[in-house]
Amino acid sequence: MSYNIQKSDKKCLLMNWDDTRFFLALARSGTLRKAAMELHVDQATVGRRIQALEESINSKLFIRTPKHFSLSTLGEELLPNAIDIENAIHAINRKVSKGDDSLSGNVSIATTDTMAEAFVIPALKVLRTQHPDITIKLLTAVDIEDISYRSADMAIRGARPEEETLVIKRLATIEMGLYAAQEYVDRKGIPVQDSQLEGHDLLMFPRDLVPRHWDSFCGEKINNPNVVLQSNSQMLIRSAARNGLGIGLLSSFIAEKDPELIRILPGNKDWIDIWLVLHPDLKNQQK
């Protein structure tokens, strides 16, 4: 039996796990400072380890500028191989931890700031009361990192991932609606139904994150919308709406409890499925 090993694969074979984690940290962060913070070492150590790694394979993995490190062509070729090594190490650690029947240890959860405030934090209060030996690492972002490629154990998110190896379960379907401050309504008035929200200021997620909202904003067809603020955080959009900057699309379970917001066009609703995403190695693990 013969194997066709590519040049990048041969070089990756020279990288041990310690090399790999330094390489990945710098590739993901782009700076020595951020990589050092992630690895809990100093910047000089990161610089020395990367230099030694490049010397060992006699090739440059990064293109250096005064403020940023970007991957070289070889670095880009090696990145998927390095991620494979990382996945294998995490899988081993997860499988070894299955032997522990106690509910203890650290659980890493990736979610959005809104989900964290409304659902995750209250649930963690109950969990910690029942199982005080469990600790939590809570990561918040709209573009949640794929848990099959990173160290998060689970994710709670508003978009169903396409990765077939993950364990995916729909948790709930939540209602979203249009909200604004009374100050804004006094100044701009209530929008007319089916008017494309013409003449109104809108607070929206960036088009690349939620493109469908730029065609239909909570049931209102829009053309050349007057978007005065874009943010990848619903919490910041809510804050902008409360301050009278415009009309925002917000989760009703949060906005309805806010005395500074009023519902705009209450018959218009947008529905979002919330998904629990679990790494397959943890499906049958008690922790």
Automatic annotation (TrEMBL):
Cited SUPFAM superfamilies: Periplasmic binding protein-like II, Winged helix' DNA-binding domain
GO molecular function: DNA-binding transcription factor activity; sequence-specific DNA binding
UniProt entry tagged with the keyword Transcription regulation: yes
Gene3D superfamilies: 3.40.190.290, Winged helix-like DNA-binding domain superfamily/Winged helix DNA-binding domain (1.10.10.10)
GO biological process, alphabetically ordered: DNA-templated transcription
Superkingdom, natural source: Bacteria
Keywords: DNA-binding, Transcription, Transcription regulation
Family named by the database record: Belongs to the LysR transcriptional regulatory family.
Name of the molecule in the record: Cyn operon transcriptional activator
Upper lineage: Bacteria, Pseudomonadati, Pseudomonadota, Gammaproteobacteria, Enterobacterales
Name of the encoding gene: cynR_4
